Amino acid sequence: MLEERADNLFGRKWNERMLKDYNAQSYWLSANLKSFFPESNLPTCKFYLAANVDLTKIKTNSKFLNTAFYMLNCLKFPAPAIMIDNMGKVKGYLLYF
Question: Which of 42, 48, 51, 73 is the least buried, fewest Cβ under 10 Å from its Cβ?
């Protein structure tokens, strides 16, 4: 019953859920401030691509673990990352802090 309701609200396929499930989505917006202030000493634009682990998705019946995962989810842990700068240079990081 609950699963059927969720399918009706959010869709059955991943692409439907991407469009309909707004609560499960996060967005990050940044801008190259140097393009707005070219005479400033601001750094140039860089893009980073890294994994973000959501510990709250780990299923457990333990109230303690659920609370611990929720609290730890507020922290971002170092992870492998790829950096691409405005010149097209690509650099990999084993752990990016």
Answer: 51
